[in-house]
Amino acid sequence: MGSIPAKLTIGAFAKAAGVNVETIRFYQRKGLLSEPPKPYGAIRRYGEEDLARLRFIKSAQGLGFSLAEIGELLRLEDGTQCDEAKSLAESKLREVRNKRRTLQKIEGVLSALVSACRNRPAKITCPLIASLQEGAARNRIGRSAETSDRFHRPPSGG
């Protein structure tokens, strides 16, 4: 990336980082970015170090780290605490793998429901809507994603 001017206003800083001004203020409130001093009667200015820190935050967010986790990583930013950084990354990796497994289960349930909708005879209640109304989709995530018989028979009583 090219060099930025020595000091930027918050608007120029936000533009250089590809975020909006409110994002910068939010990170400041969360303690992830420091607010530069404001010389008497002047405007706060941000430099290359601030931009590098903001890019670090955005990179970590891109990997799924929460703001609290990013705060921990920023504490380790000097690079001398690799074991602790590795431990945080391993924890995040476990979390990502667990989420992936859950998403795969959800995919299976949704796929079965879409298939049931596709294959339903006319005048039969929509299997997807019926499933959601009964809370069955949530309950089925832990079980097989096979479509049950109730999606292929007319509702009772009518």
Automatic annotation (TrEMBL):
<feature type="domain" description="HTH merR-type">
    <location>
        <begin position="7"/>
        <end position="76"/>
    </location>
</feature>
<dbReference type="InterPro" id="IPR000551">
    <property type="entry name" value="MerR-type_HTH_dom"/>
</dbReference>
<keyword id="KW-0678">Repressor</keyword>
<keyword id="KW-0238">DNA-binding</keyword>
<keyword id="KW-0804">Transcription</keyword>
<dbReference type="GO" id="GO:0046689">
    <property type="term" value="P:response to mercury ion"/>
</dbReference>
<dbReference type="GO" id="GO:0003677">
    <property type="term" value="F:DNA binding"/>
</dbReference>
<keyword id="KW-0479">Metal-binding</keyword>
<keyword id="KW-0476">Mercury</keyword>
<dbReference type="InterPro" id="IPR011794">
    <property type="entry name" value="MerR"/>
</dbReference>
<dbReference type="Pfam" id="PF13411">
    <property type="entry name" value="MerR_1"/>
</dbReference>
<comment type="function">
    <text>Mediates the mercuric-dependent induction of mercury resistance operon. In the absence of mercury MerR represses transcription by binding tightly to the mer operator region; when mercury is present the dimeric complex binds a single ion and becomes a potent transcriptional activator, while remaining bound to the mer site.</text>
</comment>
<keyword id="KW-0805">Transcription regulation</keyword>
<dbReference type="GO" id="GO:0045340">
    <property type="term" value="F:mercury ion binding"/>
</dbReference>
<dbReference type="GO" id="GO:0003700">
    <property type="term" value="F:DNA-binding transcription factor activity"/>
</dbReference>
<protein>
    <recommendedName>
        <fullName>Mercuric resistance operon regulatory protein</fullName>
    </recommendedName>
</protein>
<keyword id="KW-0010">Activator</keyword>
<keyword id="KW-0475">Mercuric resistance</keyword>
<dbReference type="InterPro" id="IPR047057">
    <property type="entry name" value="MerR_fam"/>
</dbReference>
<dbReference type="InterPro" id="IPR009061">
    <property type="entry name" value="DNA-bd_dom_put_sf"/>
</dbReference>
